[in-house]
Structure formats: structure tokens, C-alpha cells
Design goal:
This protein has 1270 residues and is mostly beta strands. The protein is built from nine helices and 78 strands.
């Protein structure tokens, strides 16, 4: 049981314990952590996810106030990204960037390094805006950056600067900042004038030590040039020294700069520049052509001033009408400070005269005087009067609008002028007096022209006895007297009020009179009253046109247009009435012209026009034009007929014509019906017929709906053209110029364009096409062209065409805003080609300077398929491929990429040259092909080449080093050459040269031992085809090789079989057989003569001409001959001279006997010995040609008594044998009369002692010792 608490209960319960305050606000401690976590999560999503990064980039426009905008983003910040259509807007410029691709290494940030592996930028357009000048802030204190930076590769496809229209192409650069120094390397920068490269190093601390160099190569006016510029010193005090050279082109400049000087006249220490051979037109096409030499110097003078001088010489001065500069010399001196530029001792020679120039140019005032002497006007311009002027021109007044006073006088011409400018707030050009006097005639003009706002003008002029022929050749002579007044405004809407009144005058000897009064307000001719008469020619106009109720009457009656001047002739008569408005004209007219000729090569034999168009929609409507023999430039029409009849609301149109275009005949037929919608509405109707006969031709297959007005609409149309069909599903042009079109084409044959398009190859290609284009401000759409059939025929072997074997040929163009994307695909029997790229496009024409950004891959799977184009004697093999990136101008792209080849084979069957097992590694670097390695195997060795090929000129220039290591050049049964050494292959101006030194590791050159008789080289046999030349015979190749024959070089031919040593220079010129110069010695060898195998005692072979026909100097003896019988050989290989020799004096008969028979001729048997010798010579000579045996002939054998008592009678013996070694001989003997035969084995023990063994019908062994004495 429990006890009960009986203590008194208090009156009030105790208060509950208070909760700690920290628990109430504990969640506030987590809020910063949550915010940080949320920011980290948002940052991770925005920078680390594709969706988040894309959203962030596309939101830049709103976040930056449209200063930066990105249309499309791919990738993430940490893994690399690509941005498309980037736009940057600032106060100084607007920048549009096609694409930006970044590949970087974020982990390098832990080492305080920003490492960008690649930053690739597409086409860039920079539109510069005028900005106020800002004072210089002085030199920086430091150029240090918080992080080290490494940019491995920066590439920019192109940069276009507006409004200068300057385009730069294919920028390739790298940049490193290591914490102490900035290092920039510009590998390449292309421009319309060539390519440039640069290297610059800049310290980040004062005085900012600087070192750099720049090089450029290109063409100016088709003249190649090279330029170099060296920079030194520091950023605070920079020195430079540069030069430029080329054919007839040279320039050099040197000096020093102080970029941060407070006074601009102290911003340099000295400047010296000299140039020669400069053509301004090569820099900017709109400038005149010249050949300028310039020398200029400038240096500070007394601290706050600059003094200097200039001399300019033009070696090709000429008139402006020939796009040439009439200035031939300009020389002078100057001084300048912040207050004035002063010119003194300055004069110019121009147009055969001289101009002296002196004066000052101040910021607020201009004061110059030009003294002119004998200035030839015709030398200024071919159409100017033939006169020369003397006088003075003064410019004095505010720099923005000085007063100009001029007074010039020539033989027949005089000119006076007093021209000024009225200042703001109503600036204007004031012509106080302008008077031109030619002979007794004068032209006076005065008035003013406002330069802002409405551009109000008010001029008055007067002609007094003016003769146009004195002002320009070809103008008619005359005596003109007239007054002219004109005033109004040039700003829109244009307003003109003009009056012309002729006093009695003459033109081309005929009286001229009349007056004209015109008032024009905007598009309305408010009033026109004119009555002009030239002899019987009359032109009258009276009335108004442009508003409702206006009516203008016209009358022309000109039976003699030739009075107007040269270039005019014929008869024109007509009258008409024009009313209504330009949108709804009312016409009633008749016009006839005969034998009409107008300036500009325009002529019409006859023309008749009649028209009647009423205001009512249902009133009759009729127009008719008939033209015969029309010529306008290169266009000629035999006949043109056009007519329209019906009402305004509904009428028919017809057009027929026969004409010639590019000297090809065509006939055109067109028929349509329709009408005008309302008084000012568009024309709407149907084109029923359109037929253009000729080549190429065009035919409308079915009627098509048309609407013509401010908007143009063409309905669904089907046409036959170029041997195929075209379906035009849609064609609309809006009032704002936007064009949209959609359609397709099938089976268009390229050959149908033959009369207008000349192709260098034969082909029968046909194409299909589809397009869907919207050419508005932001152009979109696609155009596809693909091969449907046919092939290209290339010139092949022996005049036979070879098909290219096209499988696929397709091109796709995609319009994407401000650029054109293209995709090309070509697949044929011989090669494959794929390409992708882009061109910037703003709706205008794509010209040769449009920058290109593309990638191309090409491959030739088997070079053997190309052998048929190289000739029958050439054998090709292997495969080759290339992957290239193209940048630069469209007409002269620069390429970057690699070219690889494997298992390459190049062999010429006629020469025996064989290059096999080849490999190629090359790269294109701009317009230069760098050959890293080209290797071929030959025999047991190889040949390797490396070098460069410059492709910038019209003909390529190359330098290639070739290294040979036991390389087999020739490998044929009768010709083998293995060499080692180094050579250089060069190509200059399209000519090849090969120089160097090589050693023959092994060589064998053999001439045929036997051949059938042949005709002389100058004999031609009708009907017999000429032999195919060597594949290398037509190459423009020059060879100069020092060839060391080494110790393994063998030559055989015409009886010689020798080992050689020595050195020879092998040479060859284009179109000639290879030759050689030098001398080689015989180390050992043999010479076959008279059926005997002779040992060569000494010999020398001298090369001094063709390689296969050296000179000989050889002495050879019969082996172990007791008397040293032998021969001496001289002359050439093709025509040797042989002389019998012996160690002892003896007759030629004995020499021959010892050489052929091995013994002297005996007295009692001279005839038999001679017969035997002759037989031996005949058989031996035949054997020498065949080369099967060392011994072949007929010999005499004396009567012998054998050991067994048997007598062997004397007889003739046929001998066939082969010398196995120097001492051992194996032969076969056959008796002519006894039919005895035996195999003979002989061994020569010494010069006089030999052992002979015979086995056969009679077997015997002989030991023979010979001792000779007199």
C-alpha cells in the first residue's frame, strides 16, 4: 500500500519552466547553409548539366541587357562547350560570331593555371562605330595576371571589319603567360594580300621588355613578295626594323616609338621609310594603277615639333580615264606641332605640268596656295579638252569650309571660281562665281546648295556662244546661247522648279531654239511646257502627270536625229497623251522609228508602237509593239512582237521573238491572259504558254497562275527544261523584297548547257534537285542537288576515254540566318570525297573574297586504278587519303591537315625503276605542303624523302631532301643498281632538278649479247606504231649526281665482263637520254674476243656522254699464253676498235695463231692453221654473241702414236668448252673425219705445265710442259 501526501496545496500552481531561446531560433542557423547549398546546386546545374548550361547561355541576353546573346549552346562549362550565333553589342562595335568552341582543362585551376587546349571561333563580323576620342591614360603600372594562362590553339575562321570591308582569314595562334612574361605566337593570319606569322614576347613588369618578329608572304599585283618586321626594346620605348622584297618591289622601314608620350609629336624618336614598285590598285581595286617609289623621314624637332620630308615617284603615270595616276613626282618638306602643319619647298609634277604647294593647316584654319603651270587636261583624262592650264588656286578659311579662289588660263580655256561654305546652323555650299570660257564661248554658274535638312538648292546659269566640241571630243559643234534657273530641294520628297530658255543658237550647223519650264513635286510632274526645235526636228510637251485629272501631251517629229551629235541617227515620229497616275496610267500613243541608232551600240532597223489604255476597267485596252533588227550590246533580235488586247479587267498578252544570245539562235513564244484588280491593283491572270526553243530550251507544260505587282506570286508550275522536268510548287516575292520558293527538278542534263557552259571533260551527267528557301531578312531553307545518272569521261591511255565511275555525287546547301552551310559527297571508282563547311551570307552575292570555313576528307583506295591515265609503262599501287580544314578566301583557300599513303608503288617498266612498299606522311600548312616523310623500299634498302612544297604561286616551288640506304634503283636482268647517299630534289618555275652524292653498293649494267639486225633511228616505217616513251621521259627533269661506283660495280657488254671502281657524275636534261662524265678503272675482269676468254691486264672506262656508251681503253691477254698474246680495245662500247698484241715481236698472223690456237703458225701447214684460225674466229665470234661457252671452234690435231702403238692420224676437231675456273677447263672434242669423240678435262699447273685427261672413244692422260726458245 502507498502513503498519501497530506501536505497543503498552494493557492496557485507554479509556472511552467521557460524554454530555452536558442531552440526558437535554431532554424536560422541552417538558413545560410541552405542558401549556400542551393547556390551550389544551382551553379552545378547551370555549369555542369547540358540543359542548365544551355539555359544560362540563352539567358545572357536578358541578364546583360542584350549586350551579349547566344542562340544555341551545347556541352557544359566543365566538359567543354560550343556556342552558336553569338552577338556582342557595345558602344564602339557590334560583333557577330558564327560559333565558339572551347576545350579546356578545369583541373589545372588547382595549380593556379587557366589551361585552354583549344578555342575555335567561326566567322566573325565586326561593325565598328564612331566613338569620341578619349585622352590616353598613360603607361600601365603592371601587366601581370592573377593566373598563369596556357592557350594551346586559337583558331578563327575569318574576321570581317565593317565598314572598311577588310577581311582576314584563317587565324591560328597560341598564347602562354607564365607569371612573368606574355608569349604570343601567331602561326598564321591570311589576308587578301597574303599570309602573315608573328611571335611576340612581353614582360609583365616595367619597362615591359619586348621582343618580336613578324613575317608575311603573298602577292601584290600578281608579284610575289616577302616581308619581315623585327621589334625590340620595350613597350615604353619600342624600336622596329622591317623590309619587304619581291620582283621590282622593295621597301624598308625603321625607327622608334614612344607609345605613351604625352605629346603625340614626341611619340617617336625617328621614322625612316623607303618603298619602290608599289601599285595602289593591288591594295584596293578601286584605286588607280601606278608604280610608286616613296621615301619619307620624320623626327622630333626641339621637343614639341616634328620635321620631315617626302619624295614620291611614279614610273607609270597616266590619265585617270585609264585607271592610272597622273601624278609622276611629289617632293616636299614639312614641320608640324600641336598648332599647325606647315608645308614648304613642296612641288608636284602632274599631267605634264607642275604644281607648287605652300601653306599651313591649323586645327581651325586652312591656308594653302597652289601655283599651277602647264597642267595638261588631256593627260588628266582622255575625254578632257586638249589644252594646258596655268594659274593659281587659293584655299583660305575655316578647316571645315574654306573659301576657294581659282583662276586658270590655257590656250583656249579659262576658268574662274569663287566657292565657299556657309557655317552652321545652316551649312551650305556657296558658288559665288564659276565661269568657264572656251574660245569665245562662256558658261557661267552661281548659286548655293544646303548641306543638311532639306538640302535646298538655288542655281542660275548662262551659256553664251558655247561650243560643246571644245569641251570634249565627239560632241557636236555649236553656238549655244541659253539661260537656266533651277531651285528646289534634294531631300525626299524631291522638288524641282527649272526653266531653260534658248536664245538664237546653232548645233551641228542647224538652228536651235525653244524653251522648257518644269515643275516636279515628289512623284508628280506638276507641269511641263516644252517646245524645242533643231532644224526640222521638233519636241513638244505640255501638261501634267501624276494626279487625277492631269494630262500630258507629247509630240516628237525628228526626221534627222544625226544633228544631235555623233552616235545619233535615224528618224523618229510620234505623238501621245499620258494621263492618270503611275499606278493606273492612261495611254494613247503612236510612235515610229526607222534606221534608229543611239549611243551605247543600240540600233533598230524599224520600230512601231501603238497603245490605247482607258481609265474604265471595261474600256478597250490595246498595246502593240513591233521591232525588227534590234541590237543592244551583245543581244540581237531579228524580230520582236508584243501585243495586249481586251480590257483593263480582262485582256490577253502575246510575245513572239527570234533573237541570238551568245551567238546562239533562240525563239520565244509567250501567251497569257488576266487583268488589273482595281485602278491600282496588281495584275493577276494565267500564263498559258511559255516556249523557248534553242539550246538550252524551256517549255511550260501546263498553265500557271500569276500575280504581278508589289508582290509577285507564281502558282504551281511544271516546266520541261535541260532534258528533264522542273516542278515549281511555290514562288512568292513580298513587297519588302522577301522571296520564298519551293520546288523540285528531275533528270536535268548538264550537256544541254553546252552552248553556254564549256566543260574541260566529256560527260553525260543528269541531276535531280529539291529546294525550299525563304530569302527574308533571316534567310532559312535548303537546296539539294544530286546526281541522277550519267558519268564523266576522262582522257585515258592511247586516246581512249575512261569513265570516272561515279556512284554518288550530291551537294546540300542550308541557309541558316547569316550563313550558308554546305555538305558535299562524291564517290567514284577511283576516289571518295566528303566536305562540310560554311560561308557568311547576308543576302548579297558571294564573291571570291568571301571567307570559307570547311573540312574535307578525301581518299583513293587503290592508286592502281589510276595507272590507265599515266601511260602503259607506268605501274601504280597503294592507297592515299587526306583530312583537311579549309579557311581563307573562297578563291584562295588555305588548308590545314594531313595526307597519308600506304603500300605505295611507282614503277616504270621501260627503265626498270621500281619504288615499292611506300608510305607517305605529309601535311598542308596554309599554301605549303610539308612532306614529313615519304619512304619507298627498293631491293633490300629504302629511300626516304622530306621537305616542303610551296603552292602559293602559279607554279609550285619545292625543296625535298632524299636519303637512300642500299636502295635498288634498277632491278632488271641486264641492269641493276643499288645505291646509298643523299640527294636533293628541287622544283623552281615548273622545272625539276636532282643533285647530290650517292655511292653504289652494288651495280650491274649489261648490254644485250645478241640481237637481231635493226634499222637506224632515223628510219620510219609506215603503219608501224611508234614505241611508247618512258613515263619519265616527258618530265622536265635535270639531274646532276655524283656517283661513286664503290667496289661492287660490274659492267658487261660487247665481250667485256669487268668489276669497276671510280666516280662518275651522272647528268640528264629534259627530253635527253641520261649521260655521265668521269672515269672508272677495271679491278678485274675478262674480255671475250676471237672465241677466247681473255684476262684483262689493265683497263679504264671513261664516261663522257651517254651512260650506255662509254669510251674504252682495255688490254686483255689469253690466259697463260707463253707469248702474252692478246688484244687492246679502244673506242666506244657501241663502236669498239680491237688490235692484236703480244709480248714479243711477231707478225699479225702469228699473233692471231697464238691468240686463237695457242701456238705459232707452222710453216708447212700455214694454210691449215689459217683455216683453223678462221674457223675458230667465226665460231668464237658467234659464241661471243650467244655467250653459252668459253671455247667454241675448229682446230687441227697432229698425228700421234699412242702408248699402245696405235697411230692417231691428223684431223680437224670441233671443240666446245667452258672455263670452270681460272685453271680448270672442261670441254668436248669431236673428230670431223674419224667421228672420234671425247670429254676433255684440263688443269693448268703453271704457265708452261698442264695436265690433260680425255675420256671417250680413246681415253688418255697427258702431262704437257712447254719451253719456248728461238
Amino acid at each position: 500500500m502507498s502513503e498519501t501526501d497530506t501536505s497543503p496545496v498552494p493557492d496557485t500552481a507554479p509556472p511552467p519552466p521557460a524554454k530555452p531561446k536558442r531552440r526558437r531560433w535554431r532554424w536560422l542557423l541552417w538558413l545560410p547553409l541552405l542558401l549556400i547549398a542551393a547556390l551550389l546546386a544551382a551553379s552545378a546545374w547551370l555549369t555542369g548539366s547540358r540543359a542548365g548550361f544551355a539555359w544560362l547561355m540563352q539567358s545572357l541576353g536578358g541578364l546583360s541587357g542584350n549586350a551579349v546573346s547566344v542562340k544555341q549552346a551545347e556541352g557544359t562549362l566543365w566538359d567543354g562547350f560550343k556556342l552558336s550565333d553569338v552577338r556582342v553589342r557595345s558602344a564602339g562595335s557590334d560583333v557577330d560570331i558564327e560559333s565558339v568552341k572551347l576545350d579546356w582543362q578545369p583541373s589545372a585551376l588547382w595549380q593556379r593555371q587557366l589551361w585552354l587546349r583549344q578555342l575555335a571561333v567561326g566567322h566573325v563580323k565586326v561593325a565598328l562605330k564612331p566613338t569620341p576620342d578619349t585622352p590616353s591614360s598613360g603607361a600601365p603600372e603592371s601587366l601581370a595576371l592573377p593566373l598563369s594562362i596556357r592557350l594551346d590553339r586559337l583558331s578563327v575562321a575569318s574576321v570581317t571589319l565593317e565598314p572598311a570591308k577588310l577581311r582576314l582569314y584563317g587565324l591560328e595562334a597560341g598564347y602562354v603567360y607564365d607569371g612573368r612574361r606574355h608569349d604570343l605566337k601567331l602561326k598564321r593570319l591570311g589576308s587578301p594580300w597574303g599570309e602573315a606569322a608573328a611571335a611576340l614576347q612581353l614582360a609583365d613588369a616595367k619597362p615591359f621588355a619586348l621582343q618580336g618578329k613578324l613575317s608575311a608572304d603573298g602577292e601584290l599585283d600578281k608579284i610575289p613578295y616577302q616581308a619581315r618586321l623585327a621589334l625590340g626594346g620595350s613597350l615604353l620605348q619600342l624600336s622596329f626594323d622591317g623590309e619587304l622584297s619581291g620582283k621590282d618591289l622593295v621597301a624598308d622601314v625603321k625607327g622608334g616609338l614612344l607609345p605613351f608620350a604625352s605629346n603625340p609629336f614626341n611619340s617617336f624618336t625617328r621614322l625612316d621609310a623607303r618603298m619602290a614598285g608599289i601599285n595602289p590598285q593591288a591594295i584596293l581595286p578601286e584605286w588607280p594603277r601606278a608604280k610608286l617609289s616613296l621615301a619619307v623621314f620624320a623626327e622630333p624637332d626641339a621637343g614639341q615639333r616634328v620635321k620631315g620630308g617626302l619624295t614620291l615617284l611614279n614610273e607609270q603615270a597616266g590619265p585617270l580615264s585609264e585607271q592610272r595616276l597622273p601624278l609622276s613626282l611629289l617632293a616636299g618638306e614639312f614641320r608640324a606641332d600641336d598648332k599647325a602643319l606647315e608645308l614648304f619647298n613642296t612641288h608636284a609634277r602632274i599631267a605634264g605640268g607642275e604644281i607648287g604647294l605652300a601653306g599651313q593647316v591649323r586645327p581651325d584654319r586652312l591656308k594653302l596656295a597652289l601655283d599651277i603651270s602647264k597642267l595638261g587636261l588631256r593627260q588628266l583624262h582622255a575625254d578632257a579638252p586638249d589644252d594646258s592650264l596655268d594659274g593659281r588656286v587659293m584655299l583660305d578659311g575655316p578647316l571645315s569650309g574654306p573659301n576657294i579662289l581659282a583662276q586658270l588660263k590655257g590656250k583656249t580655256l579659262q576658268a574662274k571660281a569663287d566657292v565657299g561654305f556657309a557655317p552652321a546652323p545652316r551649312p551650305a555650299l556657296l558658288i559665288r562665281q564659276a565661269e568657264l570660257t572656251a574660245g569665245v564661248g562662256t558658261l557661267a554658274l552661281a548659286g548655293q546648295l544646303g548641306l543638311d535638312g532639306k538640302q535646298l538648292f538655288d542655281f542660275s546659269g548662262k551659256l553664251n556662244r558655247a561650243d560643246p566640241s571644245r569641251l570634249k571630243p565627239g560632241l557636236p559643234s555649236g553656238d549655244l546661247n541659253a539661260s537656266l534657273q533651277a531651285k528646289g530641294q534634294l531631300a525626299s520628297p524631291l522638288s524641282v522648279a527649272a526653266k531653260l530658255q534658248f536664245a538664237p543658237s546653232k548645233l551641228s550647223g542647224a538652228p536651235l531654239s525653244g524653251a522648257a519650264d518644269l515643275q516636279l513635286q515628289g512623284e508628280r510632274l506638276k507641269s511641263l511646257s516644252a517646245d524645242l526645235r533643231l532644224a526640222q526636228n521638233r519636241l513638244q510637251a505640255n501638261g501634267a502627270y501624276g494626279a487625277a485629272g492631269d494630262k500630258l501631251k507629247l509630240l516628237i517629229d525628228a526626221p534627222n536625229l544625226g544633228l544631235i551629235g555623233p552616235g545619233f541617227s535615224g528618224v523618229v515620229k510620234g505623238q501621245g497623251e499620258l494621263a492618270g497616275t503611275p499606278k493606273a496610267p492612261l495611254i494613247s500613243a503612236n510612235l515610229q522609228a526607222d534606221r534608229l541608232k543611239l549611243p551605247g551600240n543600240i540600233a533598230v532597223q524599224s520600230m512601231q508602237f501603238s497603245g490605247n489604255v482607258k481609265a474604265d476597267q471595261n474600256s478597250p485596252f490595246q498595246l502593240k509593239l513591233d521591232v525588227a533588227a534590234l541590237q543592244a550590246g551583245g543581244f540581237r533580235a531579228e524580230q520582236l512582237r508584243a501585243s495586249a488586247s481586251g480590257t483593263r479587267a480582262r485582256h490577253g498578252l502575246q510575245l513572239d521573238g527570234r533573237f541570238r544570245l551568245a551567238d546562239h539562235p533562240y525563239a520565244l513564244q509567250l501567251a497569257a491572259n488576266g487583268g488589273l484588280r482595281g485602278e491600282a491593283g496588281p495584275w493577276a491572270g494565267t500564263l498559258n504558254k511559255l516556249e523557248l526553243s534553242g539550246r538550252p530550251g524551256l517549255s511550260l507544260l501546263a498553265p500557271v497562275a500569276l500575280e504581278l505587282g508589289e508582290q509577285i506570286k507564281v502558282g504551281n508550275a511544271r516546266l520541261a527544261a535541260l532534258g528533264g522536268s522542273i516542278t515549281l510548287a511555290e514562288l512568292n516575292r513580298g513587297a519588302n523584297g522577301a522571296l520564298s520558293t519551293r520546288g523540285s527538278a528531275r533528270g536535268l542534263r548538264l550537256a544541254e548547257l553546252g552552248p553556254l557552259l564549256s566543260l574541260p571533260v566529256k560527260q553525260d551527267l543528269s541531276f535531280d534537285s529539291d529546294w525550299n528557301l525563304n530569302l527574308a531578312a533571316n534567310a532559312k531553307g535548303q537546296f539539294v542537288l544530286r546526281r541522277a545518272g550519267g558519268d564523266v569521261l576522262l582522257p585515258g591511255d592511247k586516246g581512249k576515254d575512261a569513265a570516272l565511275g561515279l556512284k554518288t555525287a550530291a551537294a546540300t546547301l542550308t541557309l541558316d540566318g547569316g550563313r550558308v552551310l554546305f555538305d558535299l559527297n562524291l564517290d567514284s571508282r577511283y576516289a571518295q570525297l566528303q566536305g562540310k563547311g560554311s560561308l557568311p551570307w547576308n543576302g548579297g552575292a558571294i564573291d571570291a573574297k568571301t571567307p570559307l570555313n570547311a573540312t574535307v576528307s578525301a581518299s583513293v583506295p587503290s592508286l592502281a586504278t589510276l595507272a590507265s591515265f599515266a601511260g602503259p609503262s607506268l605501274e601504280l599501287g597503294g592507297q592515299i587519303g587526306a583530312n583537311l580544314a579549309l579557311t581563307g578566301a573562297l578563291s584562295q583557300p588555305m588548308a590545314q591537315g594531313t595526307i597519308r599513303g600506304d603500300k605505295l608503288l611507282l614503277a616504270d617498266r621501260r627503265t626498270g625503276i621500281r619504288l615499292g612498299d611506300g608510305s607517305l606522311l605529309a601535311r598542308l600548312d596554309g599554301r605549303k605542303l610539308v612532306l614529313d616523310r615519304l619512304r619507298f623500299a627498293g631491293g633490300e634498302g629504302e629511300v626516304a624523302a622530306s621537305g616542303a612544297l610551296d603552292l602559293s604561286g602559279d607554279t609550285p616551288d619545292a625543296r625535298v631532301a632524299v636519303e637512300l640506304r642500299k636502295f635498288g634503283v634498277f632491278d632488271r636482268p641486264n641492269r641493276r643498281l643499288v645505291v646509298s647517299g643523299r640527294t636533293e630534289l628541287a622544283m623552281v618555275a615548273g622545272k625539276l632538278s636532282l643533285t647530290g652524292h650517292i655511292r653504289a653498293d652494288q651495280g650491274r649494267i649489261g648490254l644485250p649479247k645478241f640481237g637481231a639486225p635493226s634499222l637506224s633511228d632515223d628510219v620510219l616505217v609506215k603503219g608501224r606504231p611508234e614505241p611508247e616513251p618512258s613515263a619519265f621521259a616527258s618530265m622536265p627533269l635535270t639531274v646532276a649526281l655524283d656517283l661513286d661506283l664503290g667496289d661492287r660495280f660490274r659492267f658487261s657488254g660487247q665481250g667485256l665482263n669487268v668489276d669497276l671502281t671510280g666516280s662518275v657524275r651522272v647528268s640528264a636534261n629534259p627530253g635527253e637520254a641520261p649521260g655521265a662524265k668521269g672515269q672508272v678503272r677495271v679491278v678485274k675482269g675478262r674480255y671475250k674476243a676471237y672465241g677466247q676468254d681473255l684476262d684483262i691486264e689493265y683497263g679504264a672506262i671513261t664516261f663522257n656522254g651517254p651512260l650506255d656508251n662509254p669510251l674504252l681503253n682495255v688490254r686483255a691477254k689469253r690466259r697463260l699464253s707463253p707469248v702474252g698474246a692478246g688484244v687492246e680495245v679502244s673506242g666506244s662500247v657501241s663502236m669498239p676498235k680491237v688490235r692484236l698484241v703480244a709480248d714479243e715481236p711477231m707478225s699479225e698472223k702469228d699473233k692471231l695463231a697464238w691468240l686463237v690456237l695457242g701456238r705459232a703458225a707452222s710453216g708447212e701447214r700455214d694454210d691449215n692453221d689459217l683455216a683453223a684460225s678462221a674457223g675458230m674466229m667465226l665460231a668464237g665470234s658467234l659464241n661471243d654473241q650467244i655467250g653459252l661457252f668459253d671455247d667454241l671452234g675448229v682446230s687441227s690435231r697432229k698425228e700421234k702414236t699412242l702408248a699402245n702403238g696405235t697411230v692417231s692420224p691428223a684431223e680437224q676437231v670441233v671443240t666446245v668448252g667452258r672455263q670452270l675456273t681460272r685453271e680448270l677447263y672442261l670441254g668436248y672434242e669431236y673428230g670431223v673425219t674419224s667421228a672420234n669423240q671425247a670429254v676433255k678435262l684440263a688443269y693448268q699447273l703453271s704457265k708452261g705445265w698442264s695436265m690433260v685427261l680425255r675420256a671417250g672413244t680413246d681415253a688418255s692422260v697427258e702431262s704437257r710442259y712447254t719451253l719456248r726458245f728461238d
